[in-house]
Design goal:
two-stranded antiparallel ribbon; 5 strands; about 30% helix; about 15% strand
Amino acid sequence: MTLGLINANPVVHAKKERVARTEDPHGDDAIDPLEIYDILLFLFFSIFLICVNFVRDIRDPEHPYSLEQLSVLSEESITVDEKLGRILITFTPTIQHCSMATVIGLCLRAKLQECFPPHFKLDIKVAPGSHADEESVNKQLNDKERVAAALENPNLRQLVDECLYSNEL
């Protein structure tokens, strides 16, 4: 955590009510954004496994709120192309000069890498025009070597794990 808050007064939104599905709207094993957003189901050797944590519940690295509560992430910001095995997540930092944007992206990538088989290509980006250094942040978040190096850093890994597994929400 940083000593001084970068965004001392973020706008906090109410959590959306979770919608329980009574039937599969696709009628097949297709993965849609709602499944990723709510329960991160994935297909591995034709068996769906359930991740116990939700992308929407990842805690912001600077505040005791979820990414959903801060409107950093929403269901609409997730795109899935199961045929191509691609998942695109676009998130919106709370402020244009957010220094935590790369940490947020690392949290998303770490969580999705835990839950999806390696044949899925994950693209994680900041929303266009939402960050002062958009191109650099996107490049860092989608460079395998940079991500691996960042997650090997014990301090950074601890911060990511705190965001992923915090029970403070």
